Amino acid sequence: MYKKILITGATGFIGKEILTQIKGKNISAICLYRNKKNNIKNKNITWIKSSLTLSKKSLKIISTFAPEVVFHLAWDKIPNFNRKNCFQNFWLTSRFLSVISKIDSVKKIIISGSCFEYYSKSGKKKENAKLNFVDNFPSTKNILYKLALFLCKKKGIKLAWFRIFYAYGKHQRKDSLIPYMIKSIKNKKNIYINNPNLKLDYINIEDIAKFFLKTLSINFNSGVFNLGSGKSYTPITILKKISYILGLNYEKLKLNYFKEIDKNMFNSFEACMNKTSQTFKIKKFKTLNNGLKKLLK
User: Fold this and answer.
1) Positive/negative CA dihedral, 134, 265, 230, 180
2) Which member of 48, 81, 124, 242 has the greatest number of CB atoms within 10 A?
């Protein structure tokens, strides 16, 4: 098992959960941050104030630390996915990967991708489904995967590119769907929902972090791996579950529906998790009920 990791985006949604889960374990981490460090207390975590454009000083510290596994989670200015920002992220990430892959101690690079990389947002997706090379964000991610794979093959590094579906949980952006619903319900505000019957695959952040950490001990072939629950839910179902957990009457919520998808079209989008579960030996996921209960404590 590898015990020395480098994390970019350590102060973000996934990064915070990974740092939470390594607490108390014999894992040392060196983490990049730009503005503010996490408040997680762990003597095995070293923080470096740095962008992805590593200075000579930062690179020397990282090289001396000798990370075995790199978790690349950083993506600047989410949810701004315009052309300019995607190009900036592409430039920063490609430069970072080209530098970091040259460190001899690095054996694996693990990168957070997105389900938006798929061309069609419907059906149960396998990793070999058609990809989107048209829109800014997905096309940038798909090209970065090809670059990362090339660099890793060149240096004999294993690459796991996780296409993450709809993540939720602690530390999620407040304007995301589930935090927005919870806040609106608690404050007795109107709840505005687009496509109330569209079923999407929601995966808890704790499960995502478990898969990332599994890469430290599991041998795998380089490639793409889906990260979802393998199940899909509508916003209406989620609202009903939140209401039930809070002991409220769903029928009394102030709901406002906007555009509705064509009911004759296939209206669900979820991950096929066969490859990922078999590779990383995780088959049991936190249910949506349990995830929401923990979030609402």
Assistant:
1) positive
2) 242
User: What pLDDT, in 10s, does the model give residues 68-80?
Assistant: 999 999 999 888 8
Please report the sign of the dihedral spanned by the C-alpha atoms of residue 287, residue 288, residue 289, residue 292: positive
- CA dist 159 and 2 (Å) reads 15
Phi-psi region of 9 (alpha: psi -120 to 50; beta: other; left: phi over 0): left
Comparing 1 with 259, which gets the higher pLDDT? 1
Is residue 68 a contact partner of residue 106, using CB atoms and an 8 Å limit?
Answer: yes
Q: Which two tokens stand for residue 110?
A: 């693990």
> Is omega for the bond preceding 79 within 30 degrees of 0, making it cis?
yes
> Both tokens of residue 107?
């054996």
CA distances (Å), origin 192, targets 180, 227, 258, 267: 10, 28, 7, 19
Question: Among 228, 249, 227, 231, which Cα is nearest to 240's?
Answer: 249
pLDDT of residue 196: 85
Q: Which two tokens stand for residue 112?
A: 């957070």
Structure token digits, residue 148: 């990362």
**Up-side HSE of residue 37: CA atoms within 13 Å toward CB?**
13
Give me the chain's average pLDDT, please: 93
- Dist. CA 289–CA 84, nearest whole Å: 39
Q: What is the pLDDT of residues 131-152, one digit of tens each?
A: 999 999 999 999 999 999 999 9
Q: Do residues 282 and 134 lie in contact, with contact meaning Cβ atoms separated by under 8 Å?
A: no
